[in-house]
Amino acid sequence: MTWACFSREVTDLIAPTPAATMSLYREIEERLQAKHPAPLILTHARLPEHIRLPDVIIETSGSTQGRPELVGLSWKALRSSAEATWDYLQEPGQWWLRLPINKIAGFQVLVRSAIAGIPPSLTPAGSSYTAVVPTQVRRDPDILRSMKAVLVGGAPSPGLPDNIPFIRTYGMTETCGGCVYDGVPLSGTQVRIDDGKILLAGPMLMEGYLGSQSPFIEDGNTRWLETGDIGTLDQGRLTVLGRADDIIISGGINIVPSLVKSVILQKFPDLEVEVMGVPDPEWGEAVCAVVVGHHGGEEIVLTLEGHMRPRIVVHLPQMPLLSNGKIDKAALRHAVDEQIRAGRAWRR
User: Fold this and answer.
1) Which of 195, 223, 240 is the last residue of a domain?
2) How many C-alpha atoms does 91 have within 13 Å on its Cβ side?
3) 321: exposed, middle or buried (C-beta count within 10 Å: 0-12, 13-18, 19+)?
4) Do residues 293 and 221 share a domain?
5) What is the CATH classification number for the domain harbouring 114?
6) Are residues 261 and 117 in the same domain?
7) Which domain holds residue 41?
8) Which residues contact 170 (CB under 8 A, 6 or more apart)?
9) Do 97 and 137 lie in a common domain?
10) Which one, of 279, 299, 293, lies nearest residue 348 by Cα?
11) Within this chain, do residues 159 and 272 fall inside the same structural domain, yes or no?
């Protein structure tokens, strides 16, 4: 029988209740052991007709393209990803669930727990591991310090507090979650850079998108996923610089937003910062820093030099977030455009 999440159940999956969490956890346990498991559908979106359903259907967050993709995953890929995480951590323990279980980061907490045979917890007491997005870190840093490891992903994460055992993860729904930890590919994961763009291969890859073309390229017997991210690979260690389509071209110079953000946060770790390009009649695009905090525009701008120095600073009361804690980029751009049109942005 197909286990489906319909609209009436979505609230429980976004803010997991004990009942919803354990119900899904038990379903995962059973399907990991079954020879022919029924499909597990974690979306209330309309599915394409007349297709073979994969083992698991889960939505991307839609934080980059503005619309979610329906991703088909196999239990083989999910197991491979979870076992690679355990290989990296080297010690079993209980997971503290902090993320929506209808998205890949929270869902994989349940898969890892099921493989270890240790049910997850909704409280930190007795837990060894957790997974968060950067926006959650400021809420309870003292609790996080008690963990053996804190997986943090979902966005570039400069300026994280000290004395917390962070593991910076890189991955996506299409790779069953994180597949590169602290720049090092997990077992089975292959990484290559093609014209500055990150490509991934390995047993953790999705089967494909449902209803749209999948970003795969075939090279011999290897299937590579085109991630849409840019980065560098130095002696096997990956540095992720951000989305290729987020690059700001100002006066003919390519500017990487994550590098600008990193410099600002090194100087002002108490700020929340996002960096984007906005249309400019003279420069093509102008670097815009969007901040939540009390430091003035001139103070922020003076931390950077040359072409990395923002021409516009927009202050917001809070960052718009999706249900999984990631920045809602479409809502953020709308808020920035409104502030600029209203003349409330700082300019140099």
Assistant:
1) 240
2) 7
3) middle
4) no
5) 3.40.50.12780
6) no
7) 3-240
8) 153, 178, 179, 180, 181, 238, 240
9) yes
10) 299
11) no
Q: Is 54 helix (H, G, I), strand (E, B) or coil?
A: coil
Spacing of C-alpha 61 from chain mean position: 8
Number of separate domains in the chain: 2
Beta pairing partners, 242: 230
- For 215, which DSSP code? -
For residue 278, the domain's CATH number is 3.30.300.30
CB 98 within 8 A of CB 127: no
Query: What global pTM score does this model have?
Result: 0.84
What's the pLDDT tens digit per position in 119-155? 999 999 999 999 998 878 877 788 899 999 999 986 6
The helix/strand/coil state of 302 is coil
Distances (CA, A) of 67 to 45, 47, 57: 12, 15, 16
Write down which residue in 206, 240, 274 finishes a domain.
240
- CA proximity to 258, closest of 227, 232, 225: 232
Question: In the prediction, which pLDDT does 30 show?
Answer: 93
Q: What tens digit of pLDDT does each residue of 245-270 get?
A: 899 999 889 999 989 998 999 899 88
pLDDT at position 63: 57
CA distance 213 to 218: 14
* 320 plus 236 within the same structural domain: no
Structure tokens at 136: 């959650």
- End-to-end C-alpha distance for the chain, whole angstroms: 61
